[in-house]
Specification:
Pfam families: FHA (PF00498). By secondary structure, the protein is an alpha+beta fold. 23% of the residues lie in helices and 32% in strands. Strand 10 (135-138) and strand 11 (141-146) form a beta hairpin.
């Protein structure tokens, strides 16, 4: 049986192309995984915890409905002004009512000198760290803090 040098050259090219495709697929999968981690803010050391808010009751209107999940990210502002990430159009909500932000490895809720106050678990607060399960009430809107699990 005679081996044609042209056949070996063709097989070599095919092998190289297959190898490049396999490496490309591996790199794409790695990038996909890294992208998910960044989007979920899964880096807990120095970055935000990836927590979310679940809307329990939306008595203040807006585009949110009960059951909606709102990611906090590194900061979310809440209020009646359209510049806020979470818009609550009720007159009982201040223009810039409150904000939640990530600081020193934890999420903080800060009332921004609102007229009607911000409540965590039924207690009016000016600034307080949040824990999963905490219930936040702003006017008639009720939110529950969820961790990234």
């Amino acid at each position: 049986m005679e081996i044609n040098i042209l056949d070996m050259s063709f097989l070599s090219v095919v092998f190289k192309v297959v190898l490049v495709i396999v490496i490309f697929i591996i790199i794409l999968q790695a990038l996909k995984i890294m992208s998910k981690d960044v989007k979920r803010s899964g880096l807990k050391n120095g970055k935000n915890l990836g927590w979310k808010l679940r809307l329990e009751y939306s008595g203040d209107g807006g585009s949110f409905i009960a059951g909606d999940i709102i990611p906090i990210g590194s900061k979310i502002s809440i209020g009646r002004n359209e510049a806020n990430q979470m818009l609550l159009p009720s007159q009982s909500v201040s223009n810039y009512h409150a904000q939640i932000y990530f600081e020193d490895g934890r999420y903080m809720l800060e009332d921004l000198k609102s007229t009607n106050g911000t409540y965590i678990n039924g207690v009016r607060v000016d600034k307080k760290s949040l824990q999963p399960g905490d219930e936040i009430r702003i006017s008639q809107t009720v939110l529950v803090v969820l961790d990234d699990e």
